[in-house]
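Table 4 source record.
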Amino acid sequence: QVQLVESGGGVVQPGGSLRLSCAASGSGFSFKVMGWYRQAPGKQRDFVAIINRGGTTNYADSVKGRFTISRDNAKNTVYLQMDSLKLEDTAVYYCRDLSTGYWGQGTQVTVSS
């Protein structure tokens, strides 16, 4: 069973930055496709970013140019660097192992002035 543990959420002002981390247990991390999703209050969970085992990335239009997904296979960890944060980025952010379908427990990001 895969366990995913997110960290790094918090409260930040508009224009600020945060870096989320997602540590994965188990073997074979370097072969996994990993993604970040987010869910704002009263809304569905939406795709944010994805990275495949070769390091190719893709982003939702709403975060393109502001967020960067990366991975460190030696640490079994995927990151989401979030810059130029906006009020509408407020949500619970979830890490997902797309190779198995497992989700992390989520970490709250609040952008507030």
